[in-house]
């Protein structure tokens, strides 16, 4: 089974799936293996690894450390073409569809494609859509693109339909890491109504209750990052998993 199929089957079996985003710059080497183990025991369905900026020289070590301590998929969520490694199970092959910056729609993808091929890494084509969320986020600043207006679900739907017709395997509605406001439920519901492509939602989700709202609105995957850097306790992860898994 491919990693894409594994992720989808977890989401289908549980009603939705819970993904934890790991920023290699923010991990504490000593407690990290335990964190991965207890996250897995708490019911996490997969790990994403990456960031808008990865300053530390530990990207690959970080992936190895996760792989050593879990059996669930470990997928690269690249912030740049530097973030590619054969140690991962797959890579989200992102195209920043909400933006109009050709470099992030097709430029970096062309640079990365031969590297991914050589590594025999599974590429999961993902239409990445930034959504306005209050203050400027790192993703917005670094990509030099304008996010989708948060009060215009119809614009998000048009982008999602375009993504579906082009053939993307996943849609990612992203408020940005540490976003002031997460993606609005109205937008998630509108996108889920008109597009059958599985939907990932992330950015600024700080409570299990908020995570559940995203699932109820139509998210097939919910991602949390920052909040676990503040409180990475097994209890909180369990609460997130229980809120996201409808069954
Ligand atoms: C994943 O960027 C998000 O889509 C993660 O956001 O760090 O705010 O949870 P947080």
Overview in brief:
The chain is an alpha/beta fold. Helix content is 43%, strand content 17%.
Features:
247 residues; alpha/beta; globular; binds SN-glycerol-1-phosphate; 43% helix; 8-stranded parallel barrel
Major sheet = 8 strands, parallel, barrel
Structural class: alpha/beta
Shape: globular
**Unreliable stretches:** none
**Count of β-strands:** 8
Q: What sequence of helices (H) and strands (E) makes up the elements?
A: HEHEHEEHEHHEHEHEHH
Helix content: 40-55%
Strands side by side in the biggest sheet: 1-2-3-4-5-6-7-8
Total count of helical runs of at least 4 residues: 10
Instruction: Spell out which ligands are present.
Output: SN-glycerol-1-phosphate
Mean pLDDT score: 96
Head-to-tail CA distance between termini: 22 Å
Structural features, described:
With 247 residues, the chain is an alpha/beta fold. The chain is built from ten helices and eight strands. The chain has helices at residues 3-14, 32-41, 59-69, 102-119, 138-143, 153-166, 185-194, 208-217, 226-230, 234-244; strands spanning 17-22, 46-49, 74-76, 90-96, 122-130, 170-174, 199-202, 221-224. The chain has an eight-stranded parallel beta barrel, surrounded by seven helices. The radius of gyration is 16 Å and the shape is globular. It starts with a helix and ends with a helix. The model has no long low-confidence stretch (mean pLDDT 96). The chain binds SN-glycerol-1-phosphate (1GP). SN-glycerol-1-phosphate (1GP) binds next to β8 and α9. The site of SN-glycerol-1-phosphate has 15 residues, from β8 and α9.
């Amino acid at each position: 089974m491919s990693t894409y199929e594994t992720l989808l089957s977890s989401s289908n079996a549980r009603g939705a799936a819970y993904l934890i985003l790991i920023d290699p710059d923010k991990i504490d080497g000593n407690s990290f293996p335990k964190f991965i183990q207890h996250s897995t025991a708490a019911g996490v369905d997969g790990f994403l690894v990456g960031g808008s900026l990865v300053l530390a020289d530990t990207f690959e070590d970080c992936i190895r450390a996760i792989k050593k301590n879990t059996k669930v998929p470990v997928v690269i969520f690249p912030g740049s073409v530097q973030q590619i490694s054969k140690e991962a199970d797959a890579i989200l092959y992102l195209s920043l569809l909400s933006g109009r910056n050709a470099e992030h729609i097709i430029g970096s993808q062309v640079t990365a494609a031969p590297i991914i091929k050589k590594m025999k890494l599974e590429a999961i084509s993902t239409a990445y859509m930034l959504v306005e969320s209050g203050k400027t986020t790192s993703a917005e600043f670094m990509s030099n693109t304008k996010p989708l207006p948060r009060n215009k679900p119809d614009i998000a739907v048009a982008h999602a339909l375009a993504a579906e017709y082009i053939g993307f395997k996943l849609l990612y509605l992203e408020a940005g890491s540490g976003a002031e406001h997460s993606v609005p439920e109205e937008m998630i519901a509108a996108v889920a109504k008109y597009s059958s492509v599985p939907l990932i939602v992330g950015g600024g989700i700080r409570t299990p209750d908020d995570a559940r709202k995203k699932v109820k609105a139509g998210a097939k995957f919910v991602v949390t990052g920052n909040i676990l850097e503040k409180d990475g306790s097994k209890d909180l992860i369990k609460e997130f998993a229980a809120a996201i898994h409808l069954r």
